Amino acid sequence: MQTQEKLSALRAAMQQLGLDAYIVFGTDPHQSEYLAAHWQHRAWISGFRGSAGTVVVTIDEAGLWTDSRYYLEAEQVLANSPITLHRQDEPGVLSYPEYLCAQLSPGAAVGCDAACLSLSQQRSLTGRLNEVGIRLRPGDDLLGPLWKGRPALPNAPAYTMQAEFVGAARKEKLNRLRSASPVAPDMDYFVTALDEIAWLLNVRGQDIPYNPLIVSYLVVHPTGATWFVDEAKLNEQLKNELELDSISIAPYGEAREFIAERSESAIVVADPTSFSCMMADALPHGTRFVEHLNGVAGMKAIKTEHEIELLRTCMARDGAALLRFLRAVEEAAPREELTELSAATLLRELRAADPRFVEESFATISGYLEHGAVVHYSATAESAFTLKAEGLYLIDSGGHYFDGTTDITRTVSLGPPTEEARRDFTLVLKGHIALARLSFPAGVTGTHIDAVARLSLWKEGRNYGHGTGHGIGFFLNVHEGPHRISPTLNSVPLEPGMLISNEPGLYRAGHYGVRTENIVVVQRDRRTEFGEFLSFETLSVCPLDQHLIDTSLLDESEISWIDEYHQLVRERLAPHLENSELEYLYAKTKTLRTTPRSTA
C-alpha cells in the first residue's frame, strides 16, 4: 500500500468509530524510544523512522511532528507525500495538541492506541483537548488490522548477566524497590519500562536493535515477582536462577489480565510515565492505584562504584578502537577509500574485536561535510559521501559491552581547516570544558547548568538546538533518564553515580557540524560552609583534534584542562595499543603549551 492508500484505509476505520482524528505515537506499550519492528506503526504509515515523532491524521489532513534533529530526514521522507512536516519548537509552529484544538470543532473525538499512550500523557492530552470541548478516546490499535505482513513479536533469546558485571544482585534490587515503594510492603509494583525490567532482573536480550532488552512486563510482589515474558526466550539456567529468587514466569500476553483480576482491596504501584492507559483502564473499580514517579529509573540511574570502575576500563578499550578508526580515516582520506557508510562499518568491526563487545549502542552518525550538520544523520548507500582530504568529519558512535555502554563524538578535520571551522570547534570545546570542570551545589538539576555549555557560543551569537546531556545506562539504553542537561525543565537533581553525556555542538547547514561528546559521572567534590558541592569526572578517553583548536580563544586554565585530559587519554589508552599505534597516540595528544598559539 502507498501512503495515500494507508491514510484512506485509516480514515475509513476512523469514520466507522466516529473519530475525527487519530494519533499515531512513535512508541510501544512500554514507552520505548527504540522499537521492535512489530510496533513501528508510525514508520509504516509515514515512512519516517526517526526516534522521535508523532503522526496526526484528520479526515482532511495528515501531519508529522518531529524535532530539529530529524528535520532533514523527515523532509526527504515526506517529499511528495500527503503527510505535512511540522517542525515542532520552531516559532509559529503549533504542537500537535494545539493543532488538534485549532482544527477540530467542539464535540470532536480523537482516537489513539491505548496501549501506546502512557497514563501521564493521557492526562496531559485530555486536559488540553477538554479545554475546547474535544474528547480523547484511547482504544484499539486501528493500524494493526491494516498492516499486511506486520512483523511478529520479537523472540530473541534472553540471558543472565555475569556476576562480575552487575552492581547488585537481583534479590537485592527487588528488595530495594519494595522498600522504596510508597506503600511497601502491601503492594504489587507493576514495571513496564523494558530497561527497568532488565536492570532489576540482571538480564539482557536482543528483542530491539541497539537495546539489549527483552519485551516483557514485571510485577514485583511483597514477596517474589511475576515476569510476563515469552518463556521460549529463557534457557534452563536462567529459569532456575529466577526460581531461586522466587520469580515465576507467565505469558507476556497475560499481563493485562493480571491487572484486571486484582481484588478491590489490592494496591497497584506504577510509574505513570510508562504505565499505559490500556493497563490503567483494566484496573478493577476500587483497586487502589499509587503512582511512583521515577521509582526504578531513579535507582537505576545511580551507578555503583564497581560499575563505574568497570566503565573506566570499558571506555579505555572503546577509546582505543576509536583511535584506531580515526587513524584509518586519516590515512584513507587522501586515497578516497572510505565512504560515510563504509567508515561506520569499519568502526563497528574495530569495536567488535573486543571480546566483551555485544553490539552498537545506536546507529552510528557518520557525517562528512554538510551531512555533519544533520544532528541525527543516517548514511545510506545512496546518500553516503566519500571521505576526502578536506573538510570536517563528525563521527558520533557507541557500543554495548558486557561491562558498560559508550557514546562518544569526535569532530576531525581531514584537510587544512578554515578559520571559521577552527573558531566554531573551539567555541564548542570551551563549552565542553566549562561543563566538564564545573563545581555545583548538591540539589542542582541539569536545567540549571545547561547554559554553562552554551555561554561561549552565545557570546558570539551562536547556539545549538539539542540538549547538552542525556543519561546513559550500564549495558542498557544509551539514552536513560530521569536526569538530563537541557533547557527543557527537569526537576531531577544530579546525584553522585549518575552518568551523563557532555555534548555541546554547532551546526552550519550546508557546510559542516561540530560536536564534542564525552560521558561524565557525577561525583562528590567538596563541602564548604555553604553545603555540599558536586562535580564531574570525565570517563570517555579519545584525543581531540588539535588542528581544530584555536588557542587564541582559550585561557590558560582551558589549555591546562586540554593538556591534562590528553595526559589521561595517553595513560588510559597506551596499555591497549602497540608500536605505531602508540606513536599515533602520542602525536595526537601532544602538549598544547609547546604548540605556538594561533594569532588568527
Helix run count: 18
| Cα-based radius of gyration, to the nearest Å | 25 Å
Bulk shape: globular
What's the total number of strands? Answer: 28
- CATH architectural arrangement of the largest domain: Alpha-Beta Complex
Give me the side-by-side strand order of the main sheet.
4-3-2-1-5-6
**Main β-sheet description:** 6 strands, mixed
CATH topology of the largest domain, what is it called? Creatine Amidinohydrolase
Helix content class:
25-40%
Helices and strands: which structural class?
alpha+beta
Strand content: 15-25%
What is the CATH homologous superfamily assignment of the largest domain? Creatinase/methionine aminopeptidase superfamily
Please mark out the parts with pLDDT under 50 across 5 or more consecutive residues, or reply none: 595-600
**Nearest-integer average pLDDT:** 96
**Number of discrete domains:** 3
Terminal Cα span: 58 Å
CATH class of the largest domain: Alpha Beta
Structure description:
By secondary structure, the chain is α+β, with helices and mostly antiparallel strands. It folds into three domains: 3-146, Creatine Amidinohydrolase, Chain A, domain 1; 159-300, 3-Layer(aba) Sandwich (Creatine Amidinohydrolase, Chain A, domain 1), CATH 3.40.350; 305-591, Creatinase/methionine aminopeptidase superfamily (Creatine Amidinohydrolase), CATH 3.90.230. A six-stranded mixed β-sheet has the order 4-3-2-1-5-6. The chain is globular.
